[in-house]
Amino acid sequence: MSIVVLQIGAMSLLLGSGGATAQPQAPASPRLAYAAVHGPQFIPAAEATFISGDDRVIGVMSGGTPKAYPAGILSQHGLVEDDTPSGPIAVTW
Amino acid sequence: MKGRRLVLENAGLVGGNEVFKDTETGSRWQQSSLQAISGPLQGEHLKLFPFLLTSWQEWRRLHPDTVVLKPLPGYAERIPARNAQIRQGIPVDRPAPDAVVRRDDRLKPYMKIVGLTVGSASMAFPLDALSQIKVVNDDLGGESIVIIHQPLSDTTTAFVARVNGTRLTFAAANASATELVDRETQSRWDSYGQCTGGRLKGTHLEELILEPEYWFAWSEFHPATAIYSLPTER
Question: pTM of the entire structure?
Answer without folding.
Answer: 0.89
